[in-house]
Amino acid sequence: MKILYFAWIRERVGFSQEEIDLPPQAQTVETFLTWMKSRGEEFDYALEKDGAVRIALDQEHCNDFSCSLEGVSEIALFPPMTGG
Amino acid sequence: MKILYFAWIRERVGFSQEEIDLPPQAQTVETFLTWMKSRGEEFDYALEKDGAVRIALDQEHCNDFSCSLEGVSEIALFPPMTGG
Amino acid sequence: MTNDTKGPIVRIQSEDFDTAQILQQATKDNSNIGAVVTFTGLCRDEGGKLAALELEHYAGMAEAEITRIAERAFAHWPLDQLIAIHRHGKIAPGENIVLVIATSSHRQAAFEAASYLMDFLKTKAPFWKKEHLIDGTSSDWVDATDKDDEALNRWKDI
Amino acid sequence: MTNDTKGPIVRIQSEDFDTAQILQQATKDNSNIGAVVTFTGLCRDEGGKLAALELEHYAGMAEAEITRIAERAFAHWPLDQLIAIHRHGKIAPGENIVLVIATSSHRQAAFEAASYLMDFLKTKAPFWKKEHLIDGTSSDWVDATDKDDEALNRWKDI
């Protein structure tokens, strides 16, 4: 799985992307995030504000954290957007 | 009193402006319009559609036909506007 | 940010105007604007049937009335600038009729002020349009539409 | 009039753009447009304190997301054209950040489509702004605002 980080989430994690094998328990967005936070202090710090983390699956917003990750090849994590 | 006519009201009256002495009964917009229509066929024809006639007193819209004409020096009569 | 030293700029003219140039001037001396909304109203060719529009106007009142509307907008929204240019006389299809520019540090203020000014200008500014058709058969005054009157209801609290 | 053969034009780029030139191109080959609404978002200098804005973006998704929003607008309003250009990278005060142009034969359709696109772009397009101040003391990420989220409520039926 390709994982991308943006803005201050990227800064807290310390890099902008990685290629990683997800563990079997990371079946949905919710279980994926729980696992991510357990990967180390920098991940826990980057993702601590649950309400502030936005997620995109294969470049589409996902607002439903019960979404399955089956068939997904790119996950992006980022704070609320400030475009325009 | 200077009276101005615009668009199809001007075309029906046959000219675009005149300088005229108002009769004593033309004290308000309403009595002024009644008198205007009595001036001849072309005026009656130009002003027949009551709802369609708009009036400006000294270059300001007047929506209240009970308005007094005291102190007014320029009256304009025209159909609904189609600017923009 | 409201600039209290400025008011709206209103111009009534027969000659055409250059939207791009006016837009550039409106923004060049201020780096704190944020949002610029521009409305350009062009003469439609009505599916190729229109030869020209003729815009009759009430000189003096046209400028006064648009200025009154623009000043109400200026008082209501936090605007930097509000510019309105309206042409009169003969206008060919594709040519400019009207230009409104609203600049503000707030996006919605700029959108709303420009939209407000256009809605009022449509029904309150003393202009009347006559259509000249290509086949020469008729030259009719354009009717005011209920839709334009209804558009004003959106702003009844302003 | 809806032109079914065209869809929105979306460009994501680091280089600046020329609003005037794009505006001219958008209107030159069509004499039946009627209404053109242009929104330009500029980098504010924040009262002289800002050295530059840095816009980070999610390449690929930025274009895809703005295209999705623009296509919804295109499907909802009778538009001739809908153009969105968004810059990324370092942007100095007074420079362009974003441009939206909506053309239509209906004035309110053009205003609403441009305003809708901007509202969604603000909160749904994957861009993040970092402010670099002139005094060099801090470089902070700009917070998303509730006001921008609330702006979306206006469009919940679309």
Mean pLDDT of chain A: 95
> What count of domains describes the coordinates of chain A?
1
* Largest protein interface, residues of each chain: C-D, 36 and 36 residues
Portion of residues in helices of chain A? 25-40%
CATH architecture term of chain A: Roll
Mean pLDDT level of chain C: 91
CATH class label of chain A: Alpha Beta
Structural class of chain A: alpha+beta
* Architecture (CATH level 2) name of chain C: Alpha-Beta Complex
**N-to-C SSE string of chain C, H for helix and E for strand:** EHEEHEEEHEEH
Q: Report the CATH superfamily of chain C.
A: Molybdopterin biosynthesis MoaE subunit
Element layout with pairings:
The complex is a heterotetramer, with two copies of chain A (84 residues) and two copies of chain C (158 residues).
Chain A: E1 2-5, H1 7-13, E2 17-19, H2 29-37, H3 41-46, E3 54-57, E4 60-61, E5 74-78
Parallel strand pairs in A: 1-5
Antiparallel strand pairs in A: 1-2, 3-4, 3-5
Chain C: E1 9-13, H1 19-28, E2 35-42, E3 50-57, H2 61-76, E4 79-87, E5 89-91, E6 96-104, H3 107-124, E7 127-133, E8 139-141, H4 146-151
Parallel strand pairs in C: 1-4
Antiparallel strand pairs in C: 2-6, 3-5, 3-7, 4-6, 7-8
Helix pairs in contact in C: 2-3
